[in-house]
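Here is the promised in-class demo. Please do not try to memorize the tokens; focus on the logic of going from shape to residues.
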């Protein structure tokens, strides 16, 4: 089962006590999405997509919802979204991602998602937004770089 990007972001925001910025949220969600697909036979974590933007992979619907916070931690704008069910595979993936990545700075998270040969690099073009990063390339990035 996949969940919405908003549900995943709400989980991460609540887990962080609302201390994550939009940038941190995007990168942690991307890496969680990657891990989830690898661990669950290609099943995506979220029912949305990622695009290659200047500062790394971005889920556009989530970005546009959270951009009002700029570089500040996101507020409880996700109150209408339901968090994933406790102990669900999705919640477990998000918890593991937060535990591993939640304390990293935005800059460190950007560096993790800008790996040479990674999915973002394959699709990033200067000045171009809207280049979708296929899930297959995200899984391949894990195999090539993180495995």
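The designed amino acids, position by position:
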């Amino acid at each position: 089962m996949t969940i919405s990007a908003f549900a995943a972001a709400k989980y991460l925001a609540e887990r962080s006590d609302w201390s994550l910025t939009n940038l941190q949220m995007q990168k942690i969600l991307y890496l969680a999405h990657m891990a989830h697909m690898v661990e669950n036979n290609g099943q995506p974590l979220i029912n949305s997509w990622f695009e290659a933007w200047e500062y790394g992979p971005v889920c556009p619907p989530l970005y546009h919802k959270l951009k009002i916070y700029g570089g500040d931690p996101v507020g409880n704008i996700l109150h209408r979204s339901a968090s994933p069910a406790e102990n669900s595979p999705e919640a477990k993936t998000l918890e593991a991602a937060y535990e591993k990545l939640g304390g990293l700075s935005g800059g460190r998270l950007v560096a993790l998602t800008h790996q040479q040969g990674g999915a973002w690099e394959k699709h990033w073009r200067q000045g171009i937004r809207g280049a979708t990063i296929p899930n297959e390339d995200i899984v391949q990035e894990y195999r090539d770089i993180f495995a």
